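Local shape tokens:
==================
===
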Amino acid sequence: MAARSSKLGYLLLVIGIAGWFGVVKPQTKVFSDKLLQTKARSVEAASYKQRLNDIQSIKTQGNTIQSVLTAMYLAMPKSSQIPEALVIVDHLAKDSGVVFSTASLGTPSGQEVPVSISFSGSLDNVSRFLNSVNRTIRSGIIKSQFVTADSAGNLTANIQLGLVYQGENQ
């Protein structure tokens, strides 16, 4: 009986070895190839996902830049809106407590309109006015400024600036 179980054990061992090399080992190669393909596809999918995120980020940045450019475009008046800019400056002057003595527009050249304003007020009022002008949406370039003070501390200012506008062909 011991010889018979020994033969059966050897037979099972030979069947097991043959099964390992004939069935299991080829299947492990197939599974390892499929695992490698799955990993490659996961990396590729992650790469595509990152590309989509990058595109979304670029789109968001583009929208932000577009809104900034739109705001800048709106800040530059059209030729017909230039007097409106002076009305805004006059309103700021009244709110600040300065008094205009003169305000005039020159002839537009390039994309600037020369503006000359003269005003007077206390140091606080003039400072408040200049800060208000600085915070407005309309863009202007100060060309020259001249400020004098009297013995009472009142200031008189003459400012020449170039109001940026969209130009004649807009």
Q: What stands out?
A: Strands lie at 99-105, 112-122, 140-149, 154-164.
